[in-house]
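Lecture 7 notes: from sequence to structure.
We start with the chain below.
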Amino acid sequence: MIIDIQSAKIFQKDNLVLQDVNLKIGQGEFVYLIGKTGSGKSSLLKTLYGDLPLKEGEATVCDFDLKAIKRRKVPFLRRKLGIVFQDFQLLTDRSVHDNLIFVLKATGWKEKDKIEARITEVLNNVGLGAKGYKFPHELSGGEQQRVVIARALLNEPDLILADEPTGNLDPETSEEIMKLLFDISQKGKAILMATHDFHLMGKFKSRTIKCENSTVVEVSGSTQNTFQSSMVMPAEEPEKHEGENL
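Predicted structure tokens for the same chain:
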């Protein structure tokens, strides 16, 4: 299991957000995470990448014990993860290529030839092999999100956590990003994607879990109509995160 959570309680400071959380996600699985604003989706994701401590229950992510992990070890957990945010969080003062160099050097890469080879590989994987010299403001929203996905792939993660990755994109571009994410999943990466885009979920059907009534439940009958009849919720504002990709 890439994610294995048993009887967990998730807190924001002293406030209990989710309880009795049981969740297993295996290699190569693509799983949607849905739920109304304030239902606990972001808290669950933050717990998975070590931003919130796990106080009660048991959980392992990419073979890291979240109950026992020390703060100094959290960066090592994050090197096993790829994180894709709605608001891109690219460094605007440098090119795509240099954005990726920054992450590789921050995660311990030192050999120039290997760094260059890896950057070329991930940019080719997301269809941006000729755009490494571009700055973020010179790219479309879809291209920027492809760069973010390339950044998430740099360290060959076992798991990608995607928080509303299509939230700022038009429908056609959103479908292109979904095809890319599904392709990545089919190559063996586990993906947990928080979303409220029912149209995409109807078109790209997959296993779905839902934050509801202070816990996480499996959603059966994963169709667009099921989702729309069970939830009506506004788009969430992107949250600010500091350095989760390093």
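Points to note: Helices lie at 41-48, 74-78, 96-106, 112-125, 141-153, 171-186, 198-203, 224-230. Confidence is low (pLDDT under 50) at residues 221-246.
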